[in-house]
Structure formats: structure tokens, C-alpha cells
Automatic annotation (TrEMBL):
Response regulatory domain boundaries: 3-121
Record-listed 4-aspartylphosphate modification sites: 54
Highest taxon of source: Bacteria
Organism (species): Actinoplanes awajinensis subsp. mycoplanecinus
Domain HTH luxR-type residues, every copy: 148-213
Protein name: LuxR family transcriptional regulator
Record flagged with keyword Cell division: no
Gene Ontology biological process terms in this record: phosphorelay signal transduction system; regulation of DNA-templated transcription
Length: 220
């Protein structure tokens, strides 16, 4: 059973999501909260598999709530998916940087919403190649914020290659084809790189790659 916490300041939104989730045999809503402060407290109380967390809320917003949850070692297995009305905006970038596994727009189709919750519960990032490319665009005009030399020694040559391709927006299958290896090996390289760079998921791996200068964004 996948245990889910809903955090949104709009009761109607929460009730709609809850109705969808509770109708599934493998999904269970364990609690609801109307702001990030209560969301963090309930996350510590229930330790759900997935927290669906609105970005913009009173008292404590979704970004700060994400930071508090990901900073708590006891909540290491909790996967955060941020909810937004606005698509990929600055708030979403900050939430991904803070440790969210991905994001969903609230007008998502019900079947896509349910699939996304299950993907997040498995520990996979909700970050499609198209979203990765938008992250890349975000860094085109920004200089690196760290020294690549502090990152490079931690990775093997094959891991660096895999990270570079992931940061260019390639899926694991595409990385495998480019590196002439199996998809399983490609995923292993990416996962080992995430471990070495202390990235919670693929979203953070891409951000680290660009902020460190390991990969340089190229203008179209």
C-alpha cells in the first residue's frame, strides 16, 4: 500500500485528489494539511511514502516545507511531489533544488496523476526529458555556482559521461544507446552518480551538474 499525505490550502483541491486516490486499491491518503507547517508535522508523524505538496500556501510554503522534510534524516524515504497551477516557474525550480522529486500541474489528467504518484513512490523522479530541457534552459544565462573540480574527482569517467547525457535531457535508454551499454548499466551509472553527489533524485542530479559547471548549458 502506498501511503500519501496531501498538503494544499484549498479544501476542494484536497477532496478531489483524495477521492481519486482512495478509489485505488494500492493507494491510501493517511492525512491532510492546509499549510506547509502542518504538512511537515504530519510528515514526521505518519512518514508517508509520498507527500503531495502545494507550492504556494500560507504560514509555510511548499518550498520551505520541502527543505524541512528533506533535511530530516528520519524522513529520508519520503518522496515529495510539488503541486502547482502555473507550470515550470521559479517556485518549482526552487522546490526541485530543495529536494522535491518532481512536480505536477493541478489540471493533470486523473490517470496521469495516479501514475505519477506510483512513480514517485518507487523513488523515480518525475522529470521527463522535456522538463529536463527546460531546466537546462534555466541555466543557459547563469554562470556555474561551484567549482567543477570539487565534483569531478568523485565520479568515474563513465559516470561523468552518464551525468552529462542525463543533464542534456536524455532518458536512461537514450544514455545506454549513446554509451553503447545496456539500459540497466546506464541506470546504474546514473544512480551511483546520484549517491556520490548526494542527489536525492534525477532532478537534483541535473541541477548539480549545471550549478557545479560539470555540464555547461549551451545556447540554441
Amino acid at each position: 500500500m502506498i501511503r500519501i499525505l496531501l498538503v494544499d490550502d484549498q479544501p476542494l483541491i484536497r477532496s478531489g485528489f483524495r477521492a481519486l486516490l482512495d478509489a485505488e486499491d494500492d493507494l491510501e491518503v493517511v492525512a491532510e494539511a492546509g499549510d506547509g507547517h502542518d504538512g511537515v508535522a504530519l510528515t514526521r508523524q505518519h512518514r508517508p511514502d509520498v507527500v503531495l505538496l502545494d507550492i504556494r500556501m500560507p504560514r509555510v510554503d511548499g518550498i520551505e516545507a520541502t527543505r524541512r522534510i528533506t533535511a530530516d534524516p528520519a524522513l529520508d524515504g519520503v518522496h515529495i511531489v510539488v503541486l502547482t497551477n502555473y507550470g515550470l516557474d521559479e517556485y518549482v525550480f526552487e522546490a526541485l533544488r530543495a529536494g522535491a522529486a518532481g512536480f505536477l500541474v493541478k489540471d493533470i489528467l486523473p490517470e496521469d496523476f495516479l501514475h505519477a504518484v506510483r512513480v514517485a513512490a518507487r523513488g523515480d523522479a518525475l522529470l521527463a526529458p522535456s522538463i529536463t530541457r527546460k531546466l537546462i534552459d534555466r541555466y543557459v544565462t547563469q554562470p556555474p555556482q561551484a567549482d567543477a573540480h570539487t565534483v569531478l574527482p568523485r565520479l568515474t569517467a563513465r559516470e561523468r559521461q552518464a551525468v552529462t547525457l542525463a543533464a542534456r535531457g536524455l532518458s536512461n535508454d537514450q544514455i545506454a544507446a549513446d554509451m553503447v551499454i545496456s539500459p540497466v548499466t546506464a541506470k546504474t551509472h546514473v544512480n551511483r552518480a546520484m549517491t556520490k553527489l548526494h542527489a536525492r533524485d534525477r532532478a537534483q542530479l541535473v541541477i548539480i551538474a549545471y550549478e557545479s559547471g560539470l555540464v555547461t548549458a549551451r545556447r540554441p
